[in-house]
Amino acid sequence: MTLQKGFLNRKLHFSEIPFTRKYIGPFMGVLVAITFYALLYYSRDIFRELSARQPEFFWELTTDELNFYNFFYAAISSFLGQSVCFNIWFHRSRSMFSLPSLFRIRILNDQNVLIWYFLTWFGKLAFVYWIFFGMTFWGGHYVFSFYPDYNYLFYLILAVLYLQSWTNFRLLFVKLSLKWMLVSAIILGLFSFALSKVNFIDQEAFQKRKLEASIYHKYDFELPQSDYYERPNSYLSHELVLVLDSSNTESPYLILSGGQEIPLREFTVAIRTKRNQINEAERGLFHIKLYVDQRVSIEFVEKVKAEIARAGVNKIYYMVVPLNPEYDVRYYSNYGIEDRVSHTLYHEIGMYPSNFPAPPPSYEYPLLVNTTKQIKLNSDKATKDELVEVFWKILMDEPGKIIRYRYNPKDPFNKYIKVLSAAHQAAENLREELYLPFSDTMTEYQEYELMREFENEYRFDFQAIPKEK
User: Fold this and answer.
1) At residue 401, does pLDDT exceed 80?
2) In sequence order, what are the beta bridge partners of 315?
3) Nearest partner of 65 among 191, 169, 207, 262, judged by Cα
4) Please, what is the end-to-end C-alpha distance for the chain in angstroms?
């Protein structure tokens, strides 16, 4: 095969590009870059909007994160804009090449692969991320985030995309291509930096509006921590939030339902109405999920508990955060400790008929746990492990008793949780110890029935009584 003249001296004659294409190419490249940047920008904020199905799960970004993502979107858009420009310049412009038509097609193919293959791949990746970390898991961005732990992946993506558009240029124009790549990198870098400073949304106002709806920011809300917790059913439940409003000196404790403040006496009717809407066979499973700021006083929580009892609900879950949480505390939205309304409280609030016999004195165990500065067992200080051991012996010897404890009315709620979690941990340890000898010889159904039997037999009621003056 005879080599064509100038085969070893390959050049590009940009002066021979048609006048219209010479200027339409850069214009369309800039237009595509701005359009695609806007698409990525709005997609991110739509994703953040969807993450705020509950205000606590809003995907909050710092200024550094916003600038980083903006630059990444701008750089990708700039690379795509350059590819569009190359496509317009080189499409059927044979006169500007001292090359066979095959080489021109290879250069165009680089640009098409960059545009369509990357868009397909990036779209799939973004969709998968949205499904698994945005919609499937509540607050998934608290568990996994690309920035800052994996920000190097973004730089690698930009490097691959940029080099992809120059693959055949490098093969065909070894020396000249280096100069073009350098000039292109400078132009695209400056353009990307300038484009990343364009904000189509006032991010400060957007985040402020979302965060103002979150109790964690509005009231500096903080749930108590516990090393014992359960996962309550969310289907047959109603959520209430007790917060501390430090700006209100007369009535610092507020009750929120659905983000709205409600008086102490009014929410009883709402709870009773919702309970009555449930199938009668399932009403016994209805419970209240109580999110209580750990600074709220035990006295106020007990008042709320009494009103819940008036509504005919005897099961409450105090929502907590695992001890030493691995992720952001807002991620743990469905971890709680069960508490039931005791028979004594039903008598106190008049929920039983006057002729209904009160529980006998022997039903109540004469154990008092004081929650002052330290946990005390009667008058002696006790650690959490010691408290668990004492409760274990109580439940083993006399299951079904009411564990009573004295508290200072102004004590914060986190002290209440410490004692309650110790009692639950003792019950859990006892059930597991009794179950262990049967674990290898029983079917799955038999194990389930045995655990239910243990749960019904080795249970307790928890009653709080104010400290005597």
Assistant:
1) no
2) 340
3) 207
4) 109
